[in-house]
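Blackboard transcription, Thursday session:
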Amino acid sequence: MYDFRYERPETLEEAIDRVKSPDSKLLAGGMSLLPTIKLRLARYDALVDLGRVDRLRGIRKDENTLVIGALTRHADVAVSDLVRHSVPALAALAGGIGDPLVRNRGTIGGSIANADPAADYPSSVLALGATIVTNRRAIDGSAFFTGLFETLLESGEIICEIRYPIPQRAGYAKYPNPASRFAVVGVFVAKMADGVRVAVTGAADSVFRLKQAEQILSHRFAVDALDEMTVSSGDLNSDIHASAEYRAHAIVVMAKRAVGAALLN
Amino acid sequence: MPVVTMTVNGQRRAAEVEGRTLLVQFLRDCLRLTGTHVGCDTTQCGACTVHVDGIGVKSCTVLALACEGAEVTTIEGLANDGDLHPMQEAFREHHALQCGFCTPGMIMSAVDMVRRQGHDLDAETIRHQLDGNICRCTGYHNIVLAVQAGAAAMKSR
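(Written on the board underneath:)
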């Protein structure tokens, strides 16, 4: 690992000030960033650790919206009564990330900012129609992820909180890589007042919505409604873990499991 | 170089470190607490598990400077005046090791599991919750027995 300057601001304002340089990088839980730096896939002059910026941490309900602070750890989302009661699928998703020790450290804001194509949280952002609130603006979650590890975040922009509209029903199912627990395929299904949204992670360059499943499930929200659905493997990843055809099939299976989970909630 | 200060196994310890110094390097190289192992260095195997402010973490993926002012417990800090911690005693009693390399991390992770899940643990829960700790010798059978017994023994301590 190449050396860098370590900075630990106490306030959001101080963090904003310190991350202005393009060679600085924000550090949240570090569960992806530190391994990336160790592997020399990335190099920075300075890491600005958000760990002491306490106002970025916490979970609250704001009328019909679940608001999760960017620095909230996966372990805290997984066991939060507020999350379990309002969006149980999100608590289940958080409880299935990595392993318990990773969940003790990794954060929701870090995961969303990193935009790993196999991360779990991005699917919840798309399916629930979340809003990503930064120090500068509120970003529509459906436009937030722009490609492989790419988002709309600009240099010096910090995610403060994620605002999730509370769905009527929601479910998440993933086929995890048995070693890393990253999603080989993960599907988040959300039934909202204005229709159903379905998001797929792990299968392509970036998380995406599965419009064909949304149409079917908006008409009839049932597991067997997806019996006849087939997904094209054209744009899907093929790698050591699974072929594109395997992923296409797994999307249908995981979508059905996610609907099943949603109907139990 | 910056100086980091933290409380390790009840003692205040400080050392000069680089920005990139990992918690596990601080523990092993600066403090010579070599019970915390580095197995994979890629956040997977869990041999480096320690507790920071009472919570289990993989110390190969935490910066030393991020632990400024923290309370850190390593495997060396579990025993009380030569009396093994109940989880250590359970690993000994159930012979939950072969080469022993993963054992410090297994034990630290198991104690954190009791914090998260309580004292009454079934085998399936233990296997799932040990997801972050890898043993390459024995299979997990005796480890699971030891965690179950150790968790129960911690209740009566």
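Lecturer's comment: Residues 196 and 218 of chain A are 5 Å apart (CA to CA).
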